[in-house]
Specification:
about 300 residues; four-stranded parallel sheet; disordered N terminus
């Protein structure tokens, strides 16, 4: 009887020792954030208290920090700044949802994926630096970031998800990637944009993707909204189908030259005329200056 009890006890110990201690999987707390360690990789899973500034280290307990888990800083209203290490590979969905005090964020080059709604509702966000290894901006990624005034979509981005910049009411300047192929439904719905250049690589524009804002009667076109792009393109088709103003622009440089000064459009020929006029004026000034110097020498 004693032998069989001892044998059973030893078997139980052997089975238990085959598994890592429970503390390896339990959430731990450190400097305002909560983390877990699984398979020698650390994952940020949440936060405690009311952190204002957080610096995520490259390693925790000797393990690389590779992920910011889904909803990790969900509604962390006190957070103003966060520094992410170049070991992070993934940022989960709604990771910084409604962090309304967050002012800027730099996503390291190591990050290959960010989840939907990642920065949705970050009302104070004014500056974003994206990783060159991200190829898609997911649905609602920067939705209702009401302090964003401008945004440059890097060349590596090929797709902008549904509602990605929807509700960015201060957004008046957007530069789209030349490699962009798809703009999702309502991507720039209710933005401050008055015009947008859409590269010829774009093959798909979703419902109300650009040029629309909400009214009491539903989605309505933004008055005077202009789409710039090549004549035979998805941009031209979208403008025609939605009765929006379309203007031909062969490339971004051409589109940039079509500016508005005091509400009046300056065409490309006018820009050239202004440039020529400035060159003539500079030439005249230089000539007068040389003449004065020559007269002084004669005296």
């Amino acid at each position: 009887m004693k032998k069989s009890f001892l044998s059973a006890a030893l078997s139980a110990i052997a089975i238990f020792s085959a598994f890592p201690p429970a503390t390896s999987f339990a959430a731990k707390k450190e400097a305002g954030y909560v983390y877990t360690i699984i398979n020698n990789e650390a994952t940020i899973t949440g936060f405690e208290g009311d952190p204002v500034y957080i610096e995520i280290p490259k390693t925790i307990e000797g393990c690389r920090v590779t992920e910011i888990r889904d909803n990790s800083f969900y509604e962390c209203g006190s957070l103003k700044h966060i520094t992410l290490p170049d070991t992070i590979e993934k940022i989960g969905h709604h990771a910084f949802y409604a962090c309304y005090s967050l002012e800027s964020v730099t996503i390291p080059e190591s990050v290959k994926e960010i989840g939907m709604g990642c920065f949705c509702g970050c009302e104070s966000l004014t500056a974003v630096s994206l990783s060159d290894n991200i190829s898609r901006l997911p649905d609602s990624c920067f939705r209702s970031c009401t302090s964003l005034t401008s945004f440059d979509i890097p060349d590596n981005i090929t797709e902008i998800g549904d509602f990605c910049f929807s509700g960015c009411t201060a957004l008046t300047d957007i530069s789209l990637s030349d490699n962009l192929t798809a703009i999702g439904d309502c991507s720039f719905y209710m933005c401050g944009l008055e015009a947008v250049y859409i590269p010829s690589a774009v093959e798909q524009l979703g419902v109300c993707s650009v040029g629309y804002t909400p009214t009491d009667e539903g989605a309505s076109q933004i008055n005077g909204f202009t789409i710039l792009g090549k004549k035979k393109s998805a941009a031209a088709d979208y403008a025609r189908e939605n009765s929006l103003t379309f203007q031909n622009a062969d490339d971004f440089v051409h589109a940039f030259a079509i500016q508005r000064i005091n509400g009046q459009q300056v065409s490309v020929p006018s820009v050239f005329l202004i440039a020529i006029g400035l060159l003539i004026l500079i030439s005249i000034c230089l000539t007068l200056l040389r003449t004065k110097r020559f007269r002084k020498k004669l005296r």
